[in-house]
Task: structure prediction
Amino acid sequence: MDLSRYVDDLQHRLAIAADAAGDDARQLAERLTAPLDAAVRLILLDALSAAAGEISAELAPGSVDVRLRGGEPEFVVAAPAAVVEPAAATSAAPAPVGLPTDVDVDGGGTTRTTLRLPDHLKSQVEVSAARDGISVNAWLVRVVAAALEQPTVRPAQQARPEPGGATRLTGWVR
Result:
């Protein structure tokens, strides 16, 4: 995307406005337009980046990025992967052992949450979801639901090996 058109248009409009104020203002505008070139380009890039962020939020899990190539911005669109319907997925591939299959992924009352994962974990999640034949979202919902169904064990309550091979357990029992 060539920003020169927009920068030139702004310079032209500034010159027209300065012409109305007389020769001194026109000369001042001419002296100011060259140094403003870089600042205007930076502001335009910032606006493009903000727009790409808003579009990405609406396009999730796809995204739109702005990259500079040769000093000019270009848009890179990453389309979302094909989403497999959870109902079809549960009949086609069984859920991994220990994960609930009756979680209502697309039911009412959902909330969008941004989750930041390290790249290596994201890759493993995508592989696991593909292996199970479901979307990444459906896979994450199942895993979170399974984790919440398990009793909570604090690190201090976990079994610790004792010297000599004995195992000592700490915690409360009902």
